[in-house]
Amino acid sequence: MTLRDRVSQLISLVEGGRSVDAIDQFYADDVVVFENHELARAGRSACMAFERESLAKQGEPPHSRALSMACDETTGRAFVEWQIRFKGADGRIMRIEEVAAQRWSGGRIVEERFYYEGVIDEGDEDDGETTLV
Known about the structure:
Helix content: 25-40%
Mean pLDDT: 91
Strand content: over 45%
CATH topology: Nuclear Transport Factor 2, Chain: A
Structural class: alpha+beta
Distance between the termini: 40 Å
Number of domains: 1
Number of helices: 3
Number of strands: 8
Radius of gyration: 15 Å
Largest sheet: 8 strands, mixed
């Protein structure tokens, strides 16, 4: 299976609301995950626990969409541009736009770095307001 095939399967799982399954299937046991240059989590178990906890805090599952992806089979590097929409605790629609830079080895992600600026408050479903928070 090619790197592109693996990344496509990961995207399919995440877009289908199965992010915990994607982590379980594609993260290495000793994966390290960074958010904006800071180590956020280490180990697949910690990543799965974090994802479960994040999902449990939300009233409904987030809507994740991969806008683009690129893979380099030679170096084992992949990039996914994500757009994630979710409802905040106050019921307002929020959006994160981020890039995930992945390093793969042995068919699994050994390092993933998420780059993003902040959460965008899209306002109530009908108010038309948008604010970067």
